[in-house]
Amino acid sequence: MKKLLSKFLLFSSMILMLSSCGMTSASESKETDYQKVKEITLDVLQTEEGKKSLLKLMSGEEFKQQLIIHDHELQKLLSQSLTDQKTKKEWVKILSTQEMMQKFSKLTEKQQAELLKMLMKDPEYQKSLLDVLKDPEFSKHILQLLKSQEYRKETMKIMQELMKTPSFKEQSQKGKEQGQGTSGKKEGKNKQEQAS
Which parts of the sequence are annotated with region: Disordered (predicted)? Predict the structure, then answer.
């Protein structure tokens, strides 16, 4: 990044020097103020040659290498940003949006699955999980959830969607056919027993 900045400054100073060479006397060069130099520099950068020079500079491998953030730099930057009290509120705000939560969840899905597998093998975690599941308060909450109108609506929606699937229709049809065949045999036996 420093090299990039130094190249840009070098480029700007070269333009400044070229523009100041056209002046006739030393007294006139002293009169040139910052605004004038800025205008000249911007004018030069707006020309086709200026744009080409900048593009050439930016497309160079050395420039690109300076733009790439290395893993350790990124890790350090994120660590500082996450622990800084000023940016912490911003992170909470950013990560609380639905879109960001989905992206972050997808990004860390593999790590989350690995963590869960590791935790499920951990005896201490298993014990804690069983304690939570055995807790009467937890059971009450689950029971309340199962009795809630929202849960019933969601369950009905899932069941209706399931009934529309071809595999469920096929299994249901097979079950009906087997049930009719079995009930037909039972009726035949019942009639034979009554006749005797």
Answer: 160-196
Q: At residue 99, does pLDDT exceed 70? A: yes
Q: Check whether residue 47 and residue 16 sit in a common domain.
A: yes
Specify the pTM: 0.34
Closest Cα to residue 92, out of 81, 76, 108? 81
The number of folded domains in the chain is 3
Looking at mean pLDDT, say which of 32-41, 98-107, 182-191 comes out highest.
98-107
